[in-house]
Amino acid sequence: MPDDTVELEARLEEAESFEPPESFVAQANVADEEIYEEFEENWPECWERAGDLLDWKEDYDTVLDDGNAPFYEWFTGGSLNASANCLDRHLDDRGDEPAIEWIGELGDTRTYTYSDLHREVNEFSAALREQGVEEDDVVTLYMPMVPELPIAMLACARIGAPHSVVFAGFSADALATRMNSADSEHLVTCDGYYRRGDPLQHKEKADEGLGGVDHDVESVIVVNRLGDEYDHPMENGELDYDELISEHEGAEVEPVTRDAEDMLFLMYTSGTTGQPKGVKHTTAGYLSYAAWTSHAVLDIKPEDTYWCSADIGWITGHSYIVYGPLALGTTSVMYEGTPDYPDKDRLWEIVEEYEVDQLYTAPTAIRAFMKWGSEYPERHDLSSLRLLGTVGEPINPRAWKWYYKHIGNEDCPIVDTWWQTETGGMMVTTLPGIGTMKPGSAGPPLPGIDAKVVDTKGEEVGAGRAGYLTVNKPWPGMLRTLYNNDERFISEYWAEYSDTESDDPADWVYFPEDGAKLDEDGYITVLGRVDDVLNVSGHRLGTMEIESAIVGVEGVAEAAVVGGHHDVKGEAVYAYVITEEGYDGGDDLHERIVAGVEDAIGPIARPEEIVFTPELPKTRSGKIMRRLLEDIANEEELGDTSTLRNPEVVEDIQKKVQE
Ligand code: WTA
C-alpha cells in the first residue's frame, strides 16, 4: 500500500465523527438545522410539512386527533388516494420519465415510465374489480421482486383494497396463516423467479399454502415470470396476469376516494408469541410519512435515480422502494436477484450503469461486501452516488467506514436509519445535510419525533448508559393497531411504559422493544431487540415461531432458540433441542428439523447450529435460561448460573457447541 493510503486508513480508523460533505449540504432538501426547533415549537402542526407533500381530494381539518390515545388519528377530515399520489399527479410533468427501472437477475431489464406504470395499474385495477375485489377487501400478494408486485400494490390502493404482501421466501404455511388472519379471499402470486441463475418454482408453494386457507378463496391470479422454463400448474381456475391485462387494455379506473385514516395495507411481522402480528397502516399518515422521510432523509428529488436494495416483501421495500419514492415522482430501481450473481460486483455494475444517486441497503449486505473485498466496487465508476443509507440492524463502525470509503469515496453522507415495520418510516437518524455522523450510532431522533432512552421504570437514563428506547409522542406513520386485535396492540407496544387507564395522551408511551444508549450529544445507539425476536440478516424472526416449528418435528421433545453472533448475518439461529425417548440427535433428525423450520417459516429461519442436549438450563421455577444459552452461542463468559436447578448441563452444552 502506498504511504498516503496507509495514512488515510489510519485517519479513518481513528475518526469518531464525520461532517456531511459541503457539496451535499449545498443541494440538500433539508439543510437548516432550525428544523428541529421549528418542529418542536409547532408540534403537532409541524406535520403539515408531511401532509403538504401529498395531493388531497379533500383537505384535512385536524392534523392530530389524540382524543382516544393510543388510537391516534392523523389528518382527519382529509381524503385522498395513494395510487393517484404515486402516479396520476406526476403524469403531466414526468409522464415519460422512468418510475421503475427493473433489472432481472439474468440481465433482462424493463423500464416503466410513469405513464406506463399508470396504464398497467389502471388495467390491473379493472381486472381486480372484475374478480370481485371490493373496497376494504384484503388482497394477499405473495410475490417475488417482479414489477407486477408494485403494480398490484398500487392497483389495490387505487380501488381502496388493502394489500397484505407476504415475502416470497416465506413458506406455504406462513402464507396460509396470514391469509387466514386477514380473512383474505384474493391472492396474486407468481409462477417463480430466478435465484443465482436457476429458475425457482413458487406456484406450487402458493398452492400448498392455499390448501391451508380456512375460508373460500374467490380469486387467484398468477404472474408468469419464468415463461417456458417452468410449466406451472393452473388447475383450479387461476387466472393468468398477462391475459387479464390484455383483456382490460386501455381501461381507466377512477381512483377511489379514501379517508385519511382508511387502511392502506397490512404487514405481518414477528413478535414475542408464535402468532405474527398484522400491523395496520393507513392512507394519509403512512404515505405522508414515507414521502416526508424520503425527502428529508434520503434527499430524493424527482430527477434522481434512487435504489433501495431491500425486498418489497418487507416494510423497507414498501416505504422506500414503492410508496415514498413514487410519491415524490423519482426513479426507483428494483433488482430481482442476489448481489453476487453472476459475480460479486453486481450491485456496483448496476450503480454504474444506471448512475444511481442514492443507495439504501442493510448492514448485513455491507459486511458481505467487505468480506468479498474492495476490488469489486473498484471495478466500477461509482461517482454518481450522492448519499448512502443503511437500515435493519445496528451497523458496526468498521462496516460503516468501509461503506463510507469504498462505496461513497468519502464524499457521501451515510444515514443509519432506525425504524420498524410498526413505525412506517424512519425515526432515528441524522439528517444528511445537517448532522455530524458518528459511525455506529444512528443519530438523534428526527424532527418531531420524541424518542428517549429510559430505565425499567421509565426514567430517562443519562448519557453513556444503556436503557430502553421509547417514543413519547405519536407520529403520522405509526401503526394504528394490530389487525382485529386492539388488545394485543396495547399489550405489545404501550402497556410497558404507559398508564393504560389514562385519557391523557401524555401518559401513553410507545415501546419498540429495542435496547439503546444515549451519548452526550443526544445521539442514540440502538443495541438490538430486548424481546424474543432475532434479527438475522436484517430480517425479523420470532424465536417462539421457530421453536414451535422445531417442536412440531417428530422426535423432538423440547427446543429453545436463541440468537448467536454471526459475522455477516449479525445474528444466526441457534437451536438447543431435547429429543424424545427412542430418538437420537443424528443427521436424520437434524435434517428433519431444518426441513420443519423451512416448511413452517422459510429458509431464512434455518438454524445455523442445532445442539442436541439431554436437558436445557432451567431456573428452579422451570423457566429456560435463554440468556445462558445466548452466552454459550456467543462463546462468551457465562452469566450467573447459581439460580439454576441443573447447573451441570451448562458445561455439557458448552462442550457440544465448541466441538
Ligand atoms: C432493528 C425494519 C439498529 C431494530 C425497518 C428494530 C435497527 C427492528 C435499525 C425492526 C438500525 C432497524 N440500527 N437496529 N438502523 N433499523 N433495526 O420491523 O431492532 O423488520 O426493532 O423493520 O430492526 O425490524 P423491521
From TrEMBL:
Pfam families: ACAS_N (PF16177), AMP-binding (PF00501), AMP-binding_C (PF13193). Residues 638-659 are annotated as: Disordered. Residues 545-623 form the AMP-binding enzyme C-terminal domain. The keyword Ligase applies. It is an enzyme of class 6 (ligase). Keywords: ATP-binding, Ligase, Nucleotide-binding. Its EC number is 6.2.1.1. One of its GO terms (biological process) is carbon fixation by 3-hydroxypropionate cycle. Belongs to the ATP-dependent AMP-binding enzyme family. This is Acetate--CoA ligase. It comes from Haladaptatus litoreus.
